[in-house]
Write a structure and sequence with these properties.
2 copies of one chain form a homodimer. The first copy, chain A, is mainly α and 233 residues long. The first copy, chain A, contains 9 helices and 3 strands. In chain A, a hairpin with a 3-residue loop joins strand 2 and strand 3. The longest helix of chain A has 23 residues. Chains A and B meet through helix 1, helix 3, helix 4 and helix 7 of A and helix 1, helix 3, helix 4 and helix 7 of B. Chain B binds a DNA duplex (21 and 21 nucleotides) through helix 3.
DNA sequence: CCGTATTTGTCCGTATGTATG
DNA sequence: ACATACATACGGACAAATACG
């Protein structure tokens, strides 16, 4: 609430929470990341109204850059716009979420297909190592650590393809799934189950059969879709 | 109807080409589509600098909505931004274009996979009909008509999946490929070649084998990638 | 090092549209 | 149905930072 904007000199203790230390990108881009984080973390819930003035005050900026940030989120599909009504956090329904899972599966399948032509001993060693770690974490029921390891495992596979467009598209789809109200964070259900799938993926890579790899990667996501569909249905 | 925006008074001869008749969406969204069209048509070439003031004057608007439009294009990946330098039409290099082709192939492959579970007699009849038309157009060397028929053929396949996310992602990727300076518009080379691939796609759908269909669709895009890679390489 | 041009961000005024009492 | 309050949409002007010659 009190403003204390960019007045010629003042400053010294204002800016409610605009701690943009290393200013390197535009304010609008900065706000976009902030907002995207709030949306993805659920602090701004799907369907929630986004009031320009309130948000601008919250970030200690004017409405100009904030509107630009919201437009970017709109273009990325995180926000819906109603003319003369305002912007709302996008709410994704069950059907659309299932559709997105399919696209994500196809892209992840492509990752498997590409990787079969890029497998090296180092890569396989790294993957088997990660598999072992996840097995022990699963056995220890350390859900949090398993979750992080699982994330790193997938990230490593994606980036190893060397296809940055693939990685970007995949992340974009994963993010969009966070906009589903009834999203099931159940990585609890599948755990050793999930890791069996991981092992099949790695072994398919080791076999050098690109069709098998593509299908193994594809089905891994499809099974996540199944788990989502059964819980959120 | 005609615009005559909120001008207090002045004005009298502006609005070079701001014919936005049925105003239903925001001015920013309108400008975004205009700019996107200019970019995709090549009138704004990849790498070209985008001057806010000039563009605002060109469209007869103020900087606010124009900047919002540019931010949307930035979020969509059609424009790059350099802080305090300005925005430029994104220029996609050969390597990135090849990457995008792969992602596009995967998504199109998914379309084939999905369609095998949705084939009806009507659908197959429609496809075989389109195949015949394209054959005659190819025999007549009517490139332009073939191009349009080809577009409609692919569009029909995509939308028939019923997966709107898939359609949107596919279109987004196709659009991005237009940002490649050395893009080869050679649909001239493959024509009856291309239609042989189309026939294989339809027949794979008719066979009901989803793996075969997925692969046929996938390879159709991959061959387009090859043709692109050999001409632009 | 200086002058200019451009971007960036802010602020204000007004019109328009929506919601509410 | 009318009046009021509020929010968005757009335009214009200004100040500051930076890039470039």
């Amino acid at each position: 609430m009190h403003d204390e904007r960019t007045m010629p000199e003042d400053d010294g203790g204002g800016e409610p929470q605009a701690d943009r230390t290393a200013v390197e990108d535009s304010l609008a881009s900065h706000l976009e990341r902030q907002l995207e984080h709030l949306v993805l973390s659920g602090e701004l819930a799907p369907g929630e109204r986004l009031n320009e003035i309130h948000l601008a005050a919250r970030f200690g900026t004017s409405r100009g850059p904030l509107r630009e940030a919201l437009r970017m989120l709109h273009a990325k599909g995180f926000v819906t716009t109603v003319r003369n009504r305002g912007m709302y956090v996008r709410a994704i329904g069950r059907e659309e979420a299932l559709e997105i899972y399919d696209v994500r599966a196809a892209i992840f399948g492509l990752a498997g297909r590409i990787l079969t032509d890029k497998v090296t001993d180092d890569l396989l060693e790294h993957l088997y190592l990660a598999l072992g770690e996840m097995d022990t974490l699963a056995a220890a029921r350390d859900f949090d650590a398993y979750y992080r390891a699982n994330l790193g495992f997938h990230e490593f596979l994606l980036t190893s393809t060397g296809n940055s467009s693939l990685v970007a598209q995949y992340h974009s789809l994963v993010d969009k799934l966070h906009l589903c109200r009834a999203r099931s964070l159940v990585q609890a259900g599948g755990l050793s189950v999930s890791n069996r799938e991981h092992r099949e993926m790695v072994e398919s890579l080791a076999s050098g059969d690109k069709f098998r790899a593509q299908e193994a990667f594809f089905r891994h996501v499809e099974r996540a879709k199944m788990r989502f569909g059964s819980t959120a249905g």
